Amino acid sequence: MALDTLVNHRSIRKYKVKSIDDALMNRILEAGCRASTTGNMQVYSIINTTDAEVKEKLSPSHFNQPMIKEAPNVLTFCADFNRFNKWCKQSNAEPGYDNFLSFMTAAIDALLVAQNVTIAAEEEGLGICYLGTTTYNADKIIDVLKLPKGVVPITTITIGWPDEAPAQVERLPLDAVVHQNVYSDYSDDDIRKLYVEKESLSANKQFVAENDKETLAQVFTDVRYKKADNEHFSVVLLKVLKEQGFM
């Protein structure tokens, strides 16, 4: 059942040396493309990379994570107004999608499709892992995948037959993320209660110790997602949006 698949999701980073049948991959991609889309425009594209040389070129953009080269398929989901703009112009319609709102529309479309693909793949016994590095190095990925103006990579998933069975990572309780009717802001006491289980896990305590920090939050702010890095990659992404015609 799809509900069981969703509840049991875990990221797979090690894959068997086994290809995915083209017919199966096409079924998964077709299921992905049934995702909701703004105005039925489908302003996204999916780059299905199986060629070893192309994966080798992609690898540095994803911080050389081994799964890029080891997974049989690497799917890059892109915001894509290139195709839609060309259709408009051929049909005597002037497109007005050279703006940030249009980028957001296409990015959301791409992410919805990516999640559909993920669910369909896991339903078939495959494993996947999202890579957040896609927007960090969007400029480099554009070059490797030869993306034209109007196309920006949004996210990447590796996909293949699992060669590991990792434990599930924790999630915050529903009370932390679900608000009834209107947003209910968090008191200091609420925050302590909502994060206490996450902070008490032995794996996270080890994470804090390994990084020589006092708290788990410091691992995020000082090591994993630093302000300087966020600002740097923001500059890169804004430059990409301008060059690709969205600003």
Describe the structure.
- The chain is an alpha+beta fold.
- It has a domain at about 1-165: NADH Oxidase (3-Layer(aba) Sandwich).
- Helices cover about 50% and strands about 10% of the residues.
- The protein has a four-stranded antiparallel sheet with strand order 1-2-4-3, sandwiched between helices.
- The N and C termini lie far apart (about 45 Å).
CATH-derived topology of the domain at 2-167 = NADH Oxidase
Give the SSE string: HHEHHEHHEHHEHHHHH
Question: Given the structure, what is the number of helices?
Answer: 13
Low-pLDDT windows of residues: none
> What fraction of residues sit in β-strands?
5-15%
Distance between the termini: 43 Å
Gyration radius, in Å: 20 Å
CATH architecture of the domain at 2-167: 3-Layer(aba) Sandwich
Structural class: alpha+beta
Give the rounded overall mean pLDDT: 97
Tell me how many strands there are: 4
Global outline = globular
Give the CATH superfamily of the domain at 2-167: NADH Oxidase
| CATH class type of the domain at 2-167 | Alpha Beta
Which strand order does the major sheet show? 1-2-4-3
Biggest beta-sheet profile: 4 strands, antiparallel
